[in-house]
Design a protein that fits this description.
Length: about 350
Amino acid sequence: MTKGNAFVLGATGQVGRAAVRALVADGWEVTAASRGGAGDDGWPAEVRSVGLDRNEEGALASALGEGTDVLVDVVAYDAGHAAQLTGLADRIGSAVVISSGSVYEDEQGRGFDTQDRPDGFPRYPVPIPESLATVAPGDSTYSTRKVALEQALTAAGELLPTTLLRAGAIHGPHCRSPRELFFVKRALDRRPVRVLAYGGLSRFHPSHVDNLAELIRLAAARPGTRVLNAADPEAPTVAEISAAVDAVVGVESEPVLVDGPPVGIVGETPWGLDAPIVYDMTAAERELGYRPVVGYTESLPATVEWLAERLAGRGWLEAFPNLAKYGQDWFDYAAEDAWLASR
């Protein structure tokens, strides 16, 4: 006997793949929807794959047919997507939607969008509760659009019960912008040092895709309107992440710690923050009975293997073209060597 029908929107992405697997294992009949419509070879044969561009007029309504018990949306980004879902509430029993931990604002009105300003990096409480203020909703940035999405869906909670999951730094196989690549490639290249700004103490709470999938599974079985943080059981420092990657690859490197910010690009990492970002997971534990299924360190071997396979015989931007959006060379070894020689 199945638990019901589940429709996963964005199913061939990193989070969607994990969500499909978790829901099937939990007894749901799953429809996996994505633009390409191609199935994942790792999915059970009973998964139904459909091609769907949600921005095409009437496409989502047509794909839903008579409806679904739960819709999992991992690619919703703004109030327009919220309106799309609530407009189909008569065909959706409940929803689980991925939001972002970037929505928070500190007491000085600082958030992810102010990081490049003088003294603009937010100082959040440790850990961050869901009750902390968020940035204002809008359509100007990723964070403001996510807040607009959240507010529209929570306001329509009686019409469409929705669990919103504020994810941290998502990691695991199939990531289009993998932070772990920063250390995996250095390890594979046998770089002897790891230059780390802020004394290597930066903490940006990671969220493994399997832990996100577990939260999705739990929320699907317990419909309701709620906003929850979504992160791993621990928030390691950047120095700990570097050492853990080295251990998986089987190399040893020397940490060179910079007191304060990066020197140009030297010392900068994808987790390089001058104040910790750690999410409080007690609400998810209380409301959903959430227990993480994997820790950061134990998840690394599969991630490293996947990254190494993607890199084989290719440049890093060829393997991960989405990283070009950051507009910087993550692997400027000449700059690192010049800085090290000048010390």
